[in-house]
């Protein structure tokens, strides 16, 4: 009896000792099981939100502006004789299906006319850069020359570019060189003025150091003036190429031949208003591309303190 009361059965102790091992096995199983997926950390969510906000801020406003333009265009075309967006789009598909056809000297595709206009702009603009940028350096560097040429620039710069076209026809005896002359004379002023202003705004400390080091004028121009003046010079180049692209269309309307301006005038004579609208969008798109390319170029060569 005493043995039965105070002594446990022989198999009860192993059962109690097995309980910790079972608990350890359950813990190990829980540790081995994959953890439930956790949510993105706040920093990652904030980065995604910022990227989404930046994307819509870049894309949505231009789309809204384009939609506004198309809507106003559709309303105006409904109450006037101007072709609407749908008719113009259908005509544009036909025009761009074969932009480089040639049926004669005065019947060529839009592509050839656009390339000819760009060629004239490149020649006239290049000549203006070769003359205007060095002239701006000299005018800004020497006070006497600045005082001498400032009245001439102020007198000639406001003259309409088309007023120079008859002189070009008289001197060069041809429509193509006259159009290039017009591009040259209207492009040179922004480059001269902006380059001269950039030279005049170079800190005087730089020039004092150059004087102490007894640098030659060539080293002053290439080592000191050019890096400091480059942002101003590129701004003048950007303004000049925009002006040149504006002027070439009007000049080609008056001179004839091959060019985007002549194409617009010829389509007007044929009463093809759809092609005129297409040319307007093409002219604007090319001007926008040129402007954007020069802005990127200017930003690449502009110092941070100048940008600020």
TrEMBL record:
Subcellular location: Cell inner membrane; Cell membrane
Record-linked Gene3D superfamilies: MetI-like (1.10.3720.10)
Keywords for the protein's UniProt record, in alphabetical order: Cell inner membrane, Cell membrane, Ion transport, Membrane, Transmembrane, Transmembrane helix, Transport
Residue ranges of every copy of the ABC transmembrane type-1 domain listed in the record: 114-298
Main location (coarse class): membrane
Highest taxon, organism lineage: Bacteria
Membrane topology reported for the UniProt record: Multi-pass membrane protein
Membrane-crossing segments per the record: 55-76, 121-140, 152-172, 178-199, 243-264, 276-295
Location of the region described as Disordered in the Swiss-Prot/TrEMBL record: 1-43
Record's keyword annotation contains Cell inner membrane: yes
Compositionally biased spans, kind Low complexity: 18-33
InterPro entries xrefs: MetI-like, MetI-like_sf, NtrB
Statement: the UniProt record of this protein carries the keyword Transmembrane helix: yes
Family: Belongs to the binding-protein-dependent transport system permease family.
Name of the molecule in the record: Nitrate ABC transporter, permease protein
Organism, scientific name: Verminephrobacter aporrectodeae subsp. tuberculatae
């Amino acid at each position: 009896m005493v043995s039965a009361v105070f002594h446990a059965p022989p198999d009860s102790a192993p059962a109690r000792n097995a309980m910790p091992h079972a608990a350890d096995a359950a813990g190990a199983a829980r540790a081995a099981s994959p953890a439930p997926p956790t949510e993105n950390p706040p920093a990652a969510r904030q980065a995604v939100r910022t990227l989404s906000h930046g994307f819509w801020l870049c894309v949505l406003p231009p789309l809204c502006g384009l939609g506004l333009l198309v809507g106003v265009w559709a309303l105006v075309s409904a109450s006037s004789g101007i072709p609407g967006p749908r008719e113009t789009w259908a005509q544009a598909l036909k025009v761009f299906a074969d932009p480089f056809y040639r049926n004669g000297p005065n019947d060529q595709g839009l592509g050839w006319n656009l390339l000819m206009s760009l060629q004239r702009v490149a020649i006239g603009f290049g000549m203006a850069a070769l003359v205007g940028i060095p002239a701006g350096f000299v005018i800004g560097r020497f006070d006497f020359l600045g005082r001498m040429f400032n009245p001439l620039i102020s007198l000639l710069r406001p003259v309409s570019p088309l007023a120079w076209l008859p002189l070009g026809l008289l001197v060069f005896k041809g429509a193509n060189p006259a159009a290039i002359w017009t591009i040259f004379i209207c492009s040179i002023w922004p480059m001269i003025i902006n380059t001269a202003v950039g030279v005049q705004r170079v800190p005087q400390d730089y020039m004092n150091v150059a004087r102490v080091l007894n640098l030659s004028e060539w080293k002053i121009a290439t080592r000191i003036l050019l890096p400091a003046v480059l942002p101003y010079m590129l701004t003048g180049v950007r303004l000049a190429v925009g002006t040149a692209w504006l002027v070439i269309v009007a000049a080609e309307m008056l001179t004839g031949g091959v060019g985007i301006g002549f194409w617009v005038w010829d389509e007007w004579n044929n009463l093809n208003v759809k092609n005129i609208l297409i040319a307007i969008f093409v002219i604007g798109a090319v001007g926008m591309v040129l402007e954007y390319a020069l802005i990127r170029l200017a930003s690449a060569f502009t110092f941070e303190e100048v940008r600020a």
